[in-house]
Specification:
The protein is an alpha+beta fold. The chain has 2 domains: 41 residues; 134 residues, Beta Complex (Ferric Hydroxamate Uptake Protein, Chain A, domain 1). The chain contains 3 helices and 12 strands, in the order E-H-E-E-E-E-H-E-E-E-E-E-E-E-H. It has a 7-stranded mixed beta sheet, sandwiched between helices.
Protein backbone atom coordinates (compact mmCIF):
# COMPACT_ATOMS: atom_id res chain seq x y z
CA UNK A 1 0.00 0.00 0.00
CA UNK A 2 1.32 3.45 -0.91
CA UNK A 3 0.89 6.43 1.38
CA UNK A 4 1.84 9.80 -0.13
CA UNK A 5 3.36 12.49 2.06
CA UNK A 6 2.29 14.93 -0.68
CA UNK A 7 4.24 16.90 -3.21
CA UNK A 8 6.69 19.63 -2.32
CA UNK A 9 7.93 21.88 -5.09
CA UNK A 10 10.72 24.45 -4.80
CA UNK A 11 10.65 24.67 -1.01
CA UNK A 12 8.44 26.71 1.34
CA UNK A 13 7.61 30.14 -0.11
CA UNK A 14 5.41 32.63 1.76
CA UNK A 15 2.62 34.14 -0.37
CA UNK A 16 0.37 37.14 0.29
CA UNK A 17 0.50 40.07 2.72
CA UNK A 18 -0.15 37.95 5.84
CA UNK A 19 2.27 35.19 4.88
CA UNK A 20 5.25 36.83 6.56
CA UNK A 21 3.44 37.64 9.82
CA UNK A 22 5.29 36.34 12.85
CA UNK A 23 3.90 32.93 13.91
CA UNK A 24 2.33 32.75 17.36
CA UNK A 25 1.80 30.07 20.02
CA UNK A 26 1.87 26.37 19.19
CA UNK A 27 2.21 27.11 15.49
CA UNK A 28 5.44 29.02 16.15
CA UNK A 29 6.92 26.02 18.00
CA UNK A 30 5.90 23.55 15.28
CA UNK A 31 7.21 25.77 12.50
CA UNK A 32 10.50 26.39 14.29
CA UNK A 33 10.98 22.64 14.78
CA UNK A 34 10.17 21.94 11.14
CA UNK A 35 12.57 24.57 9.84
CA UNK A 36 15.32 23.35 12.18
CA UNK A 37 14.77 19.77 11.03
CA UNK A 38 14.92 20.73 7.36
CA UNK A 39 18.03 22.82 7.91
CA UNK A 40 19.77 20.05 9.80
CA UNK A 41 19.14 17.54 7.02
CA UNK A 42 19.69 19.72 3.97
CA UNK A 43 22.67 21.69 5.21
CA UNK A 44 22.14 24.35 2.54
CA UNK A 45 21.57 23.55 -1.13
CA UNK A 46 18.55 21.43 -1.90
CA UNK A 47 17.03 19.64 -4.87
CA UNK A 48 13.65 20.25 -6.47
CA UNK A 49 11.67 17.65 -4.51
CA UNK A 50 8.73 16.66 -6.71
CA UNK A 51 7.30 13.94 -4.46
CA UNK A 52 7.89 11.99 -1.27
CA UNK A 53 6.22 8.62 -0.71
CA UNK A 54 6.05 5.80 1.82
CA UNK A 55 5.71 2.27 0.43
CA UNK A 56 5.81 -1.24 1.88
CA UNK A 57 5.20 -2.26 5.47
CA UNK A 58 7.33 -3.35 8.40
CA UNK A 59 9.33 -2.18 11.39
CA UNK A 60 12.42 -1.08 9.40
CA UNK A 61 12.67 1.83 6.99
CA UNK A 62 15.29 2.65 4.36
CA UNK A 63 15.25 5.60 2.00
CA UNK A 64 15.64 5.82 -1.77
CA UNK A 65 16.39 9.16 -3.42
CA UNK A 66 16.33 9.64 -7.21
CA UNK A 67 17.68 12.78 -8.87
CA UNK A 68 17.00 13.09 -12.59
CA UNK A 69 19.07 14.98 -15.14
CA UNK A 70 16.61 17.90 -14.95
CA UNK A 71 17.27 18.15 -11.15
CA UNK A 72 13.81 16.80 -10.22
CA UNK A 73 14.09 14.55 -7.17
CA UNK A 74 11.87 11.93 -5.57
CA UNK A 75 12.20 10.47 -2.09
CA UNK A 76 10.87 7.09 -0.98
CA UNK A 77 10.63 5.71 2.53
CA UNK A 78 10.55 1.93 2.05
CA UNK A 79 9.14 -0.06 4.99
CA UNK A 80 10.10 -3.73 5.45
CA UNK A 81 10.96 -6.55 7.83
CA UNK A 82 13.97 -8.84 7.59
CA UNK A 83 17.17 -8.60 5.55
CA UNK A 84 17.07 -6.76 2.21
CA UNK A 85 19.45 -5.49 -0.45
CA UNK A 86 19.41 -2.32 -2.55
CA UNK A 87 17.71 -4.01 -5.49
CA UNK A 88 14.92 -5.23 -3.18
CA UNK A 89 14.04 -1.60 -2.37
CA UNK A 90 13.50 -0.84 -6.06
CA UNK A 91 11.31 -3.93 -6.45
CA UNK A 92 9.13 -2.89 -3.48
CA UNK A 93 8.60 0.60 -4.93
CA UNK A 94 7.79 -0.76 -8.41
CA UNK A 95 5.26 -3.20 -6.94
CA UNK A 96 3.62 -0.40 -4.92
CA UNK A 97 3.43 2.10 -7.81
CA UNK A 98 2.71 0.23 -11.06
CA UNK A 99 2.33 2.64 -13.95
CA UNK A 100 4.05 5.42 -12.00
CA UNK A 101 7.47 3.97 -11.09
CA UNK A 102 9.49 1.69 -13.35
CA UNK A 103 13.14 0.78 -13.75
CA UNK A 104 15.37 -1.13 -16.14
CA UNK A 105 18.30 -3.32 -15.13
CA UNK A 106 20.97 -4.80 -17.38
CA UNK A 107 22.80 -7.90 -16.15
CA UNK A 108 26.52 -8.48 -16.55
CA UNK A 109 28.96 -11.12 -15.26
CA UNK A 110 30.01 -8.70 -12.50
CA UNK A 111 26.41 -7.92 -11.45
CA UNK A 112 23.34 -5.91 -12.39
CA UNK A 113 23.43 -2.27 -13.52
CA UNK A 114 20.53 0.17 -13.21
CA UNK A 115 20.23 1.74 -16.67
CA UNK A 116 16.82 3.41 -16.59
CA UNK A 117 14.33 4.91 -14.13
CA UNK A 118 10.96 6.52 -14.80
CA UNK A 119 8.87 8.20 -12.09
CA UNK A 120 5.72 9.96 -13.22
CA UNK A 121 6.66 12.33 -16.05
CA UNK A 122 10.41 12.10 -15.33
CA UNK A 123 12.60 9.46 -16.92
CA UNK A 124 16.28 8.96 -17.74
CA UNK A 125 18.12 6.06 -19.36
CA UNK A 126 21.81 5.72 -20.09
CA UNK A 127 24.94 3.68 -19.69
CA UNK A 128 27.67 6.31 -20.02
CA UNK A 129 28.46 7.56 -23.50
CA UNK A 130 31.39 9.66 -24.75
CA UNK A 131 32.74 12.21 -24.37
CA UNK A 132 32.08 12.66 -20.62
CA UNK A 133 30.55 9.23 -19.80
CA UNK A 134 28.28 10.81 -17.15
CA UNK A 135 24.89 9.83 -18.57
CA UNK A 136 24.21 6.89 -16.30
CA UNK A 137 22.70 6.36 -12.84
CA UNK A 138 25.45 7.04 -10.27
CA UNK A 139 24.94 5.09 -7.04
CA UNK A 140 25.50 6.70 -3.62
CA UNK A 141 24.89 5.37 -0.11
CA UNK A 142 24.91 6.43 3.52
CA UNK A 143 24.09 4.55 6.71
CA UNK A 144 21.94 7.26 8.31
CA UNK A 145 20.19 10.44 7.20
CA UNK A 146 22.65 12.86 8.82
CA UNK A 147 25.75 11.15 7.39
CA UNK A 148 27.63 12.22 4.28
CA UNK A 149 26.95 10.47 0.97
CA UNK A 150 29.67 8.16 -0.35
CA UNK A 151 29.83 6.77 -3.87
CA UNK A 152 29.18 3.05 -3.71
CA UNK A 153 31.91 0.65 -4.76
CA UNK A 154 29.55 -2.31 -4.70
CA UNK A 155 26.47 -2.92 -6.81
CA UNK A 156 22.98 -2.33 -5.47
CA UNK A 157 22.30 -6.08 -5.63
CA UNK A 158 25.11 -6.64 -3.09
CA UNK A 159 24.39 -3.67 -0.85
CA UNK A 160 22.76 -4.84 2.38
CA UNK A 161 20.41 -2.12 3.59
CA UNK A 162 19.55 -1.52 7.23
CA UNK A 163 17.04 0.47 9.25
CA UNK A 164 17.67 4.17 8.53
CA UNK A 165 20.00 3.61 5.55
CA UNK A 166 19.82 5.75 2.38
CA UNK A 167 20.47 4.81 -1.25
CA UNK A 168 20.80 7.68 -3.72
CA UNK A 169 20.69 7.59 -7.51
CA UNK A 170 21.83 10.60 -9.57
CA UNK A 171 21.62 10.73 -13.36
CA UNK A 172 24.18 12.53 -15.54
CA UNK A 173 26.22 14.03 -12.70
CA UNK A 174 29.23 12.92 -10.69
CA UNK A 175 28.00 14.97 -7.70
CA UNK A 176 26.39 13.43 -4.64
CA UNK A 177 22.60 13.63 -4.36
CA UNK A 178 21.41 17.12 -3.49
CA UNK A 179 19.94 17.54 -0.02
CA UNK A 180 16.20 17.07 0.39
CA UNK A 181 14.06 17.43 3.53
CA UNK A 182 13.72 14.21 5.52
CA UNK A 183 10.20 12.70 5.51
CA UNK A 184 9.66 13.70 9.16
CA UNK A 185 10.52 17.31 8.33
CA UNK A 186 8.10 17.26 5.40
CA UNK A 187 5.33 16.04 7.69
CA UNK A 188 6.11 18.84 10.16
CA UNK A 189 5.97 21.45 7.41
CA UNK A 190 2.64 20.10 6.20
CA UNK A 191 1.27 20.14 9.76
CA UNK A 192 2.59 23.67 10.26
CA UNK A 193 0.71 24.82 7.14
CA UNK A 194 -2.54 23.28 8.39
CA UNK A 195 -2.08 24.76 11.86
CA UNK A 196 -1.43 28.20 10.36
CA UNK A 197 -4.59 28.06 8.25
CA UNK A 198 -6.68 27.04 11.29
CA UNK A 199 -5.20 29.87 13.37
CA UNK A 200 -6.54 32.52 10.99
Amino acid sequence: MMCAFGSVSHGFTPVGPRACARPQGAFASVLASAIASVGAVTGGASADLVGSYTVGSGASASFLQFQFGNANSYLYEVRYDGALFGDDLLAIVAAAQPGFFSYQVQGFSFGDVLVGVAIGADGDTGFGTPPDYLDYWHYWTKDQGGAAWTESFIGFGDRAVSDGSWDGWVFNSASAPAAVPAPGALALLAFAGVARRRAR
